[in-house]
Target: DUF4160 domain-containing protein
Amino acid sequence: MVTIHRAHGLRVIIFTDDHEPAHVHVFGDGQAKINLIGPDGSPALVWAEGMKANELRRAVQLVRDQQEQFLARWREIHG
Model:
């Protein structure tokens, strides 16, 4: 598990032994899994548990804002 970003009380991680498609896990009060490239090319929420709506919006927006950087980190970790 590698923490790749922290902001707004959220921690974004990539598991080193994880699987495709490229995605991140975001932890705050709860957690969410967000694919880095969804059907329309932008990040897509896979699931969330325990996150309030405003925290989830922040998490998805954070991944949108950092999509290219997070994809680069995914590639560094997973090849």
Summary: Helices lie at 53-65, 67-78.
